[in-house]
Specification:
The protein is an all-alpha fold. The chain has 5 helices and no strands. It starts with 19 loop residues before the first helix and ends with a helix.
Length: 86
């Protein structure tokens, strides 16, 4: 009756999320953007989309909405860039 199992249906898994300032610092550090996220807007489309995919895939604690807010680009642009990968 008291057998162990691996049920997770009622377990609460705490997920750590980055706030916007921490995510901005991570992006600036990893991609050497010198605190100027405006340069992402000026990048060629293919390079910009590759960078968005890398940021999203390497940081599992970031949402599409947060990424668009931090990068100051539209949510649909981020969604399309990520969907391109799949």
């Amino acid at each position: 009756m008291n057998a162990r199992n691996s049920d997770e249906c009622l377990d609460y898994n705490l997920v750590k999320k980055y706030n916007d300032s921490v995510l901005t610092k991570i992006i600036n550090k990893e991609y050497n953007l010198d605190n100027s996220l405006e340069s992402i807007v000026l990048m060629p489309k293919d390079e910009r989309n590759r960078m968005i995919r890398e940021i999203y895939n390497n940081n599992k604690h970031v949402s599409i909405r947060q990424l668009s807010r931090v990068l100051r680009i539209g949510k649909t642009i981020v969604e399309r860039a990520i969907k391109e990968d799949r």
